[in-house]
C-alpha cells in the first residue's frame, strides 16, 4: 500500500510507470502475507517490484512502449517475471522504456519521456534517466518500487543505473532466459535487475536467472548465491584498466571518478593492471550494424495481423504498410531501415559480415585479458552524467545519442557480464557510475568487487 500510494502521488511527475496494477499488487501481497504468517515464503516474498514493459505479463498490457502493440495482452508470462513471482515478489505495474528498447534517454517511448528524479544543483531543468530502461531506473531511484526488471542489449541496464544513482547488472549472455521478453537483438539481449544497492541486485538476479527449455541459448549452470559474494575481500585480485576507454573528449570528472575507483580497489588490496583491448573503438559502429540487423528481422512479425494495432488498407500489403507506418516510431523505423540495408544483397558482406568479424575480435580482446590473469575490468559506465530532456544536439544527430553507449556495448558484443555501480556525484551534484566487467558466468566476482566500490 505504501508503494502504491507513493506511485499515485509521484508518478505523474516522473512518468516512470505506464500502468499500475493496483488489484494484482494487492492480491499478490495478500497471498504473501498469508505465506509469511504460516512461516513460509520465498527469497522475495512480499517484495514489490516494477516490470519493464518489454516483459510479457499474463493478462497485463505488454507493449514494449510501442504504438504497434496497442492493447496486446499476452496469455503467457515471461520466464524472468515468472521466476520472480515464484519467489514471492509482488508486481506493482509496467515501467516506461524506449520503444522496443531502442534508445539511451527514454525519449523514444510512445508514452512520452521519463523524468530523472535527480536534478542538477540549483536547476529546475528536467533530465533524462537514460535508456532504454529509463522507467526502471527512475522508479527505483524515486523509491516507487523496491527493485525493477530491466534489459540490456547495448547498455540499457547500466547507463540508466549510472544516470540515477542505482545499481544495474547485465548478466552473461545465457544466464537469464529471454523467453517472453520482447526481442530487440536476440544475440545481445539479456535481462537483469536495477536495484537500490549491490545486495538487492544480487538477490534479484539469483531469482531471475535460470536455464529454460524455452530459450535454447539459456545455459544449464548452477546459479550461485550472489549475495554471499558481497563482503568477500578483493585482496590479490587483478583489476584491468583498459587504456582504450580513455576516449577523446572524455570529461575530466569522468577520469577523476575512474581514478577514485582505482584507488578504492587498490586500498582494498587489489592489484591494478593496465591492459589493452585494441578493438574497442570498433565496438560502437559494429553494434549499430548488428543490433539494427537483428531488430529488423525481429520486428517483421508486427504486421497488423498477429498483434496489437491494425490500420486497414485496400489490400493486405496496404494494411501492412499502413499499420507499420502508424505503429512504429521514428527511431524504430530508422533501425529497420539500417538493418534491412546492411542485410541486403550486395551490402551484407560489406557491413553485416564485417561487423560480425569485428565482434569476434572484440570478444578475443577480452579473452586475452582474462587469460592473462585479469579478474575484473574497471571502466566508467558512461561518458557523462544525465543530460537534459530534448537535448538539441542529440535530437539533431542520432550518432551523438549512440555515443552514450560507448563504454557499455563492448560487453554485449562479447556476451560478458557487466555491472554499473554508483560511485559519486559530478560538480552539479548528479550521480556518476563505474562499470565492472567480468569473466563469462562470473557474476559473483562482479558483486564481490562492486561491494567495495559501493
Ligand atoms: N542505446 C542502445 C540502443 O539504442 C542500447 C539499447 C539497449 O540496450 N536496449 O540500441
From TrEMBL:
Active site, UniProt feature: 52, 132, 156
Domain Amidase, residue spans: 1-446
GO annotation terms (biological process): translation
Keyword rRNA processing: no
Molecular function in Gene Ontology: ATP binding; glutaminyl-tRNA synthase (glutamine-hydrolyzing) activity
InterPro entries from the UniProt entry: Amidase, Amidase_CS, Amidase_dom, AS_sf, GatA
Gene3D superfamilies, per database record: Amidase signature (AS) domain
HAMAP family hit by this protein: GatA
Listed name of the protein: Glutamyl-tRNA(Gln) amidotransferase subunit A
Organism name: Oryzicola mucosus
Gene encoding the protein: gatA
Amino acid at each position: 500500500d505504501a508503494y502504491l500510494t507513493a506511485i499515485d502521488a509521484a508518478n505523474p511527475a516522473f512518468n516512470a510507470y505506464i500502468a499500475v496494477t493496483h488489484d494484482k499488487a494487492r492480491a499478490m501481497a495478500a497471498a504473501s502475507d498469508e505465506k509469511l504468517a504460516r512461516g513460509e515464503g520465498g527469497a522475495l516474498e512480499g517484495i514489490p517490484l516494477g516490470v519493464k514493459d518489454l516483459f510479457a505479463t499474463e493478462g497485463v498490457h505488454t507493449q514494449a512502449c510501442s504504438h504497434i502493440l496497442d492493447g496486446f495482452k499476452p496469455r503467457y508470462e515471461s520466464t524472468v517475471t515468472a521466476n520472480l513471482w515464484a519467489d514471492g515478489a509482488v508486481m506493482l505495474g509496467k515501467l516506461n522504456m524506449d520503444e522496443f528498447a531502442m534508445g539511451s534517454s527514454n525519449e523514444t517511448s510512445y508514452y512520452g519521456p521519463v523524468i530523472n528524479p535527480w536534478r542538477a544543483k540549483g536547476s529546475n531543468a528536467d533530465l533524462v534517466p537514460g535508456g532504454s530502461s529509463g522507467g526502471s531506473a527512475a522508479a527505483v531511484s524515486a523509491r516507487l518500487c523496491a527493485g525493477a526488471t530491466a534489459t540490456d542489449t547495448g547498455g540499457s541496464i547500466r547507463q540508466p543505473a549510472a544516470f540515477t544513482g542505482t545499481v544495474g547488472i547485465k548478466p552473461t549472455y545465457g544466464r537469464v532466459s529471454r523467453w517472453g521478453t520482447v526481442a530487440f537483438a536476440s544475440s545481445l539481449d539479456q535481462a537483469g535487475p536495477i536495484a537500490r544497492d549491490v545486495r538487492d541486485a544480487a538477490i534479484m538476479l539469483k531469482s531471475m536467472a535460470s536455464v529454460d527449455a524455452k530459450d535454447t541459448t539459456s545455459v544449464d549452470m548452477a546459479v550461485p548465491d550472489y549475495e554471499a559474494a558481497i563482503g568477500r575481500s578483493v585482496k590479490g585480485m587483478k583489476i584491468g584498466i583498459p587504456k582504450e576507454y580513455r576516449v577523446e573528449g572524455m570529461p575530466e570528472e569522468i577520469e577523476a571518478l575512474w581514478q577514485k575507483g582505482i584507488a578504492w580497489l587498490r586500498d582494498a588490496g587489489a592489484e591494478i593492471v593496465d591492459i589493452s583491448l585494441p578493438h574497442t573503438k570498433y565496438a560502437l559502429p559494429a553494434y549499430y550494424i548488428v543490433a539494427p540487423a537483428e531488430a529488423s528481422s525481429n520486428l517483421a512479425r508486427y504486421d497488423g495481423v498477429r498483434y496489437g494495432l491494425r490500420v486497414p488498407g485496400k489490400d493486405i500489403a496496404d494494411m501492412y504498410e499502413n499499420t507499420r507506418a502508424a505503429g512504429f516510431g521514428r527511431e524504430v523505423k530508422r533501425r529497420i531501415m539500417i538493418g534491412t540495408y546492411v542485410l541486403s544483397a550486395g551490402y551484407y558482406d560489406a557491413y553485416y559480415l564485417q561487423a560480425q568479424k569485428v565482434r569476434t575480435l572484440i570478444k578475443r580482446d577480452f579473452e586475452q585479458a582474462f587469460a592473462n590473469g585479469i579478474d575484473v575490468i574497471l571502466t566508467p559506465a558512461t561518458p557523462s552524467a544525465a543530460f537534459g530532456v530534448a537535448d538539441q544536439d542529440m535530437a539533431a544527430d542520432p550518432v551523438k545519442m549512440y555515443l552514450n553507449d560507448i563504454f557499455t556495448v563492448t560487453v554485449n558484443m562479447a556476451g560478458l557480464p557487466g555491472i554499473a555501480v554508483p560511485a559519486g556525484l559530478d560538480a552539479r551534484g548528479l550521480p556518476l557510475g563505474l562499470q565492472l566487467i567480468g569473466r563469462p558466468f562470473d557474476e559473483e566476482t562482479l558483486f564481490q568487487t562492486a561491494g567495495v566500490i559501493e
